[in-house]
Amino acid sequence: MRISFEKIIRSVSLALDLAEISSSENPHCRKNISNVNFSNHKFYNHSKRTTYIALKLAKMLNLTDDSMKNLYIASLLHDIGAVNSLNESHTSSAFIRRHCVDGASITQNLPIFNSVSPIIHYHHENSNGTGPFKLKSNEIPIESKIIHLADMVETIYDENVPAFKQHKGIINLMELNPLFDKSVSKAFLSVAEKEIFWFDMENISFLDSILDNISPNITDKLDFHQFESFAVMISDVIDSKSSFTARHSRSISNLAFRVSKYLGYSNEKCLKMKIAGLLHDIGKLAIPTTILDKEGSLTDDEFSIIKSHVYYTKIILDSIEDINDISDWASSHHEKLDGTGYPRHLSASELPEESRIMGVCDIYQALTEDRPYRKGMSHDKAFKILNDMAEHGSICKKAVAQLAGALKAN
To answer: InterPro entries under this entry (predicted)?
Structure first.
């Protein structure tokens, strides 16, 4: 089975937008363009809208097909380096430089289209040489120049205000601005004079066809080994969101893989379980870091927010479409046999063996790993808790025994 690379990237883009939304309780102030204050921008659909703007400009500039594809992927992923520093000002100079460097480093590991790395690296460079890396216009990749302007327009744009009330102000701010390449600015002014551009800006959040209709045709597919390598990359992004989770996703993945091997699952199924472990917490990107990193007890409201992470895991992974089994196993790791789990309150008859194993692995890893507020438990103490939970009908006795057997066998 092979998996659509474009769908994978679109799903990650959705996760990145959720991560940016989750940081909206923090100030996002940019003062580098006419002293505009961006503190009210919530970054809803930021990646999607930035990509739409970038593709519209690229079509005006007659970019080649290969350049269009690179621009498309880079636009969707341009803020992938920002997840672990969204508690800072979105546009402080330190944040800009670091998230460009981190984004370039992360995307170097893409199994295909890793040529987008330098585009992301320089997507905040100013054409007048005042950007984080001091490159001037002719030294900056054209795709980076386009994303730079598209990102700025999207950040200025306010989803809560009708486009007809703000488009003239945005155009005035962008016209002849020395931060942007002249040809890119000219392309934006041509695009922005058409009403359809602003109608699309207003409606892109719920009409996927708007972006679909102008996206380049990317037919590349990943095999499961390539998808695993991609999932490893994303797991590092997930775990960087919180100071508590260092290598949590990789550890769950390794446990799930060991149990799968122990049970004699096929090689493909073992690999699927490994990937499910790597991606099981991708929904945590939607959770504010202030809650993830809270050292004391959570309030009822905070716990309700935490519970939503598995919901978002399913939403994100389901958008790939080709991995329904992986999505189900990954998103069911907090369900319990007695129906007291979350978010779907599944019963024993609704939880397959794979989901039961994933849940037990998650609990074991959470108990045994160090956290800033406590040391990890010993293996024996963790299994005492697991066995008690199994005796009370909360988790699967068989899955607990399978984990114990796998750990003893290796």
So the answer is: HD/PDEase_dom, HD_GYP_dom, HDIG_dom
- Write a three-state SS string for 341-372: CCCCCCEHHHCCHHHHHHHHHHHHHHHHCCEC
Residue 264 contacts residue 312 (beta carbons within 8 Å): no
2 within 8 A of 221, measured Cβ to Cβ: yes
Bridge partners for 222 per DSSP: 3
Confidence (pTM)? 0.92
Helices (H) and strands (E) in the chain, counts: 19, 2
Which of 171, 187, 212 represents a domain boundary (last residue)? 212
- Domain membership of residue 333 (yes or no) is yes
- Rounded to whole angstroms, the Cα distance separating 341 from 135 reads 53
d(CA 16, CA 285): 7
Closest CA to 231 of 254, 212, 215, 208: 254
Q: Are residues 159 and 92 in the same domain?
A: yes
pLDDT digits (tens, 9 = 90+) for 41-77: 455 689 999 999 999 999 999 999 999 999 999 999 9
Do residues 171 and 307 share a domain? no
For residues 77 and 9, is the Cβ–Cβ distance under 8 A? yes
> What tens digit of pLDDT does each residue of 239-273 get?
888 877 778 999 999 999 999 999 999 999 999 99
Domain boundary among 179, 212, 245: 212
Which CATH number is 330's domain given?
Answer: 1.10.3210.10
Count of structural domains within the chain = 2
Q: Phi/psi of residue 176, each to 5°?
A: 60, 30
Structural domain for 273, as ranges:
223-409
Compute the distance between CA of residue 188 and CA of residue 274 in angstroms, rounded to an integer.
44
For the segment 283-323, what is each residue's pLDDT rounded down to a tens digit?
A: 999 998 889 888 878 899 999 999 999 999 999 999 998 89
Residue whose C-alpha is closest to residue 114's, from 61, 151, 77? 77
Residue 163 shares a structural domain with residue 232: no
Cα R_g (the chain), whole angstroms: 23
- Distance, in Å, from the CA atom of 110 to the CA atom of 124, rounded to the nearest integer, reads 21
